[in-house]
Amino acid sequence: MNLLNSKVNPDFKPKLFTSLKNYSKEKFMTDLMAGIIVGIVALPLAIAFGIASGVSPEKGLITAIIGGFIVSFLGGSSVQIGGPTGAFIVIVYGIIQQFGLGGLAVATVLAGLMLIGMGLLRLGTIIKFMPYPIIVGFTSGIALTIFTTQMKDFFGLSMESVPADFISKWIAYGKVFTTLNPGSIIVGVLSVLIIVYSQKIIKKIPGSLTAIILMTVIVYILRNYLGITGIETIGDRFQINASLPSPTPVPINLSTINLLLPAAFTIAMLGAIESLLSATVADGITGDKQNSNTELIAQGAANVIVPLFGGIPVTGAIARTMTNIKNGGRSPVAGIIHAVVLLLILLFLSPLTKHIPMACLAGVLIIVAYNMSEWRVFLSLLKNPKSDVAILLVTFFLTVIFDLTIAIEVGILLAMVLLVKRVSETSNISVIKDELNMERDAEKMADNDKLILPTGVEVYEIDGPFFFGIANKFEESMRLMNSKRPKVRIIRMRKVPFMDSTGLHNLESLYRLSHQENIQLVLSGVNDKIKAMLDKSGFANKVGKENICSNINEALERADELIK
Fold it and tell me: What structural domains does the chain harbor?
């Protein structure tokens, strides 16, 4: 029972509580400034991500407020900033189109429970080993999809609704492209230029915020003083509620779980990957060390609670986390302050957001998509081995053409298959009948470079993992042997780091075949883990523990005894 508890019960230690032990006024002032700046940076992004995901702008703010607070309060990283991110736009928009806001709430809660389960089972370190081509593939695919979703607002196209899938979007855009609005185009282009170039002049204020302030003022003057009303704003499309809503229960039952489990899995995996990558990058800059399992539990808790208030999925936001670090934030207090700043903005300044032009938000998201695209990395990966290129391209095109759920599942499956193929290609089975070359052998016991095998003894050496990918090779090697039937078969396993159930089954089949032919089986160089597996399965008793030898010299001595 204690062993079970040690495996499941994590070392749950939120960074906030350890950070407060040696906290000081100076640290608070630094965190205060960082938190205020991050809150200002998060404002336009939260609004833009909310609208692009298919919900109202205050839902994006609510997600950043509540989710950001929980991630900082319970998280395993000192500087992680949580909230809505661009990576979720595609999956959230698709879920809303198919299942509505209620379906999104159910999927997000289920994803939160999955993330908590991952943290409890200590899977945080495993998730970090997601193949890099998969990450780049779906990130670049998401970036292209985000760019595609912004064409309507950027060009001011007259459309009642935008199709959910990539190809249908561009077909629909082509049909209504003659309805483009020159005013919206000018606002969108100016927004992009301001975001790109303003940072070179005003480094302390984020370019997205500068663009929103300037374009909002300009469009407000055009609409109210010059009579130019053709440029759409947030207020033309949404009614903003300047308050935190009351929590509403999320109706979860068996049918909704079955229906939304794939989408929930995608949200959980994407959230885990993005959060842990963000925290890992932050660790590299600050020199701190995150608790990845605590971070997963915090992300899970945020995604369970935020949907009760109508929010969308929460994850660690790399851009906001980097902003926090660059401005001196070194404890979760900065993240909590960022959430408080956004709350104050929602309560007292949110009516002003109705004047923000939609084309300006489209420009903000186009820059977000460009930064997400990692096109230089994408092109460099195309020079890698064909297997990596295949994973990259399959994940990318599935993300763009179909959806992220299929892309992640197929990408992981393809990566696993190719990994098995690679490992299988590096594993070999060799058959020795006459003499063993011991020149560079760690098991050499004397000055002789060769060991002469006794008559009637064959050695089968396995070099590499003995698992399902190579088990068939062993059987093929056996069938290819047309020589005289030996009296003893030695299976040399000194270079076998691990063995799975298929390898064990293969050994059992070999034992039965050898026993029927009156051939003795001897194992050589078995490591402790494999030996424990043989004991637990009962195979050690079948073959005889005296026939499991620690090295080839003992195995040959045992073979001599069996022949005599």
Answer: 24-240+262-417 (no CATH), 428-563 (3.30.750.24)
